[in-house]
Amino acid sequence: MMNIQRILKHLVTAERHVRQVFTPTRLEHIAHTIKASEMQHSGEIRFAVESALEFRPLLQGQTPRQRAIEVFSDLHVWDTELNNGVLIYILLADHAIEIVADRGIDAKVDSEYWGELCRGIQAAFAQGQFEEGAKTCIQAVSQQLIAHFPHNGGGKNELPDTPVVVG
């Protein structure tokens, strides 16, 4: 069943909305948080934000989770030596946050933990605390990566730390 309200929300949420919420300065701070985090473990964290879905996937009823998995693939988060990449994906039009973890870390962390992180970042975003919510989420993901994939001294950064504005 087509959700007209959702379609309208996506149509009016422009990419400029992403730039208002996640200013270049905020994105830079998020990148620094990711970089600092990755000095403590061998995992890889990617942060992606998207204003709205494209029209065709929207009409087909693509869920935020399905889109997050697509972005996870597009950004090659799965392409790490230890399969320990994690994507934090934000879809502004739906007020949705999804965490997609590669099989190496997903096998070690309960899905309820990821769900709790999503709810936490959603609460922060609802209060307008976008940078703080993102940083808190990154730090919580880092705790799991530190516990399960401590830094092996190699210091190899397999994926970019810079947040991605999709679209």
UniProtKB/TrEMBL annotation:
Tree of life domain: Bacteria
Signal peptide: none
InterPro entries (UniProt xref): TPM_dom (IPR007621)
Domain TPM: 20-143
Any single Pfam family the record assigns to this protein: TPM_phosphatase
This protein's name: TPM domain-containing protein
Organism: Limnobacter thiooxidans
